[in-house]
Amino acid sequence: MKTAFVIVAAGRGQRAGGGLPKQWREVAGKPVARWTLEAVAPFGKVVMVIHPDDQAIAQEVIVGLPVDLVFGAADRSGSVRAGLEALIEAAPEQVLIHDVARCCVPAQVITDVIAALETAPGAAPALAVTDALWTGEAGQVSGTQDRSGLYRAQTPQGFRYADILAAHRAFDGQAADDVEVARAAGLDVAIVPGSEGNLKITTPEDFARAAKQLRIKMDIRLGNGYDVHAFEDGDHVILCGVKIPHSQSLKGHSDADVGMHAVTDALYGALAEGDIGRHFPPSDPQWKGAASEIFLKHACDLARAKGYEISNVDCTLICERPKIGPHASEMMQEMARIMGLEMDRVSIKATTSERLGFTGREEGIAAFATATLVKP
Ligand code: MG
């Protein structure tokens, strides 16, 4: 195994307020530690160092992720060492040590550290100090400090595993970070570009900043769908799951629910998963006369299986008759039920085409739909 991570999560996080240690508190819908673990897990094996009191909550946070838990020590250096010792059997070539509170770490920072380890025994991200620096005393500026050559250190800090394990075993005392431990053992550490987005949650205000960063990373997808069905002899139509008495029916292989088909295709479109015909071929006799609910449910299940939440759908039916207005509310209710959504996330509306074109001549009904999917 090439790369492993030690995530340091044994602190009590008192400065962030809120009772629970900061790494277990939620930001943008997930615990801080969960965001951090999901950011690093694609790059290697993960060991998370925790306080023994936090075992139950940590176990909940790691569900579904390949993460080993290890109990830490009273100070940071001791906790890192516990994490490193837990990797002896796995024997990674290199290890990246990362603060759990840096939950917005960009993938680029991680890959830059890993790439730098090809040639350097240690590598860590940092940002050059650009603000002027002062010293102060009793609320007064007492002097200025030259900022040239000064950096703000971040994590993950990466090292060859055997080197940093030996360095931690030999180190005695308190270190600000693992670069200090490495340098005390004579290891050179290369600086790779850090990121302003790689913030460390420390104060209550940092939660809002982190939430903003994490939401930028959200995957938001938009899909559109369009469908047409022609009229034929009959006495009702089915539109968005609602049976409406009418002087004609819609012709189709299934129940010809043109509105539900457009919404279903919008969902498939957002997922780049083709259309209804791909998943339910019209050549297959088992879908003859099928309730379109089956198609819509399938698209919703597919979206959720891929980790998306359905944020909203909007559908416009285009026809002169039947009048949609009196049925719109029932349609929205029915579509929301099938999709497992709140009513206020489903919009069904209608327009005529001013008697123009095939819809104007009442030869058929057309429907447009859009759907938004969000992966948090
Ligand atoms: Mg259709």
Description:
- It is built from twelve helices and 19 strands.
- It is elongated and about 90 Å long.
- β4, α2 (55-61) and β5 form a beta-alpha-beta unit.
- By secondary structure, it is α/β, with parallel strands linked by helices.
- The chain folds into two domains: 3-217, Spore Coat Polysaccharide Biosynthesis Protein SpsA, Chain A (Alpha-Beta Complex); 219-375, 60s Ribosomal Protein L30, Chain: A (2-Layer Sandwich).
- Magnesium ion binds next to β13 and α8.
Give a short overview.
The chain is of the alpha/beta class and 376 residues long. It has twelve helices and 19 strands.
SSE topology sketch:
Layout lengths: L2 E7 L16 E2 L2 E2 H9 L4 E6 L4 H7 L5 E5 L4 H10 L8 E6 L7 H10 L5 E7 L4 E5 L2 E6 L5 E3 L3 E4 H10 L7 H7 L4 E5 L10 H13 L2 E15 L2 E4 L2 E4 L2 E3 L7 H13 L5 H4 L13 H13 L3 E10 L6 H15 L6 E6 L5 H4 L3 E12 L1
Parallel strand pairs: 1-4, 1-6, 4-5, 7-12, 17-18
Antiparallel strand pairs: 2-3, 6-11, 7-10, 7-11, 8-9, 13-16, 13-19, 14-15, 17-19
Bound molecules: magnesium ion.
The site of magnesium ion has 5 residues, from strand 13 and helix 8.
